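Appendix B. Worked example

We walk through a single record from start to finish. Start with the input: the chain for Thiamine kinase-like enzyme/choline kinase/predicted transcriptional regulator, Neobacillus ginsengisoli, length 626.
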Amino acid sequence: MEQHSFQLLEAINKNTNLNQKKMAEICSISIGKVNYLIHDLTIGNYIYSEKKGRNISYYLTQKGIDFLQSGIEAFREKKVNIHQEPVTEIKQAVILAAGTRKDFAKPAGLMPIEGTTLLKRNIDILKENGIEDIVIVTGYQREAFQEVSEFSHYRLVENPKYKWTGSMASLALAHEQITDDFLLIEDDILIEERAIKELLTHPQRDCVLIANESGSGDEAFVEIKNGYLHKISKDIHQFNHVDGELIGVSKLSYEVFTKMVNEFQENNNNPYMNYEYMLLDVSRHYNIAYLKMHNLVWGEIDSQLHYDTIINKTFPILQRKEAEFRDIQIKGYLMEALDITLEDIREIQPFGGMTNKNFKVLVHDKEYVLRIPGNGTEQMINRKEEKVNSSLASEMGIDTELIYFNEETGVKIAELIQEAETLNPKTAKRQDYMKLTTAILRKLHYSDVKMANRFDVFEKINDYELLMTEAKGQPYEGYEEVKAQVMALKEIYQGMNITLTPCHNDLVAENFVKSGSGKIYLIDWEYSGMNDPMWDVAAHSLECDFSPEEEELFLTLYLNENQIPLELQQRVLMNKIYQDFLWCIWTIIKEAKGDDFGTYGTDRFNRARNNLANDLIKEMTYEYKK
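Next comes the structure step. The output line below is what the pipeline stores for this chain.
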């Protein structure tokens, strides 16, 4: 059982009338996690509750009291050790997928499970938790991984001797690909997402995940001593006591991993060595921590019987539990942000969103939108700047009232727009809607508001190119030539008389939301900042696929003039080129990390190249060179 469960049992034992907010303060965790742990401890029969009016009292069962009495001293001793090293953010993972299973004609990780595969599910969990640099060690049917396009974005390392080697040989082959602490997972493991989350945030850099004995007959038993890994074996007769079963998911520091590899390559004469036992050898010199999770739903696919059990029993249970866990997480965000009780939350519904997760929530009789940022956005979005800019937009009445914004996590709560109608590229072309959208843009651009940052496309291009290099993304053919032309326009553009104004900078049609007949809002200020207002005009024209006539109409409505100055036409076209070039780099980055955007990136790249050949650009370049 994890340390926070001990703390919670101890707090309840001292005061049965604590509310969840007070429990969170005592245990130094979020209300959402308290809510989840209480649910878990209740299911495990460690506590029970009684409701008195709006208040709930919690009590330890006899099982909870016995557990607290027998384990509290050992737990306190472990607490001193587990907080000695800081948490290291994990960005890499190794998946061991070289082994063969006699019951299957394919690698275990490629076995189907609910419309996906076990390996794809685990990769999705890793990506959801910020890990996109993934090494897959293959062996048996290595071509099967190469044929699946979704795995082509990850680094595949082959163990050609998989028939005659153990898992340590496979892990050692990944050494050159690993540069920092990483998560290690076996390809045949089905596990709750919360286990990955807990392991990644565990305060020890080296930590194995264990669970209660499964009774599968092939368990790797674990014994813990003084709070750290002491013994691993499949022979139960070797143990004074068994503390759990090794699952096949671990967090390893680069230093311990390197020690394991060196020990294996220099001093080991047994090619069949498995990594668990090499880790045990290293643990004689290094403290290897453990995380034992309560009521964990998991399984492994070693045989047809295991696979049938997972499909028919384990996975349905896991799906229900993960849905429940997500619900508890969402409620935890709301309780913490709005300082409300669980009973105050009446309804939660998914509410659109592609990059982020959005939810429509009903608290008391008031409706809100909760936004939980998608994974990976922290590299491209400054949440502190977004908070300032969102607040300014709210104060101007351009966006709805901002209720809560956590600049560390990016979690945001805003008022729900009533009678909401989200625009799309087709409706955005209607003249009556253009009058609304251009009016709100004028209000934004012509204001005296100073946003927290400047959106400089040339700085963004440099930043994104660095990310592209880090992700080992491959630029499109002709990239350098197009970039040279884009940079040649930079001098002309920066010589123009451009006054920077507050801008949204992400004017897809869906960010305009109509309320009733005459009111419209502009939402989602993640990319906002001081910029050329023609960036917004260009962005909306591109995203809505305006024809030249529709773009002309939009500009005349925006300017309240029938004639569009030549320089504004030039600036709109130049900003279109800059945007297409910038977002094609963004696509290269995302696809290098495993996403698939089809032809989106190449379409934008080719459009930038075509616009660079536009007569307006040619004339402007010619005049500049004169």
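Two observations about the output. The longest helix spans residues 304-338. The longest strand covers residues 244-252.
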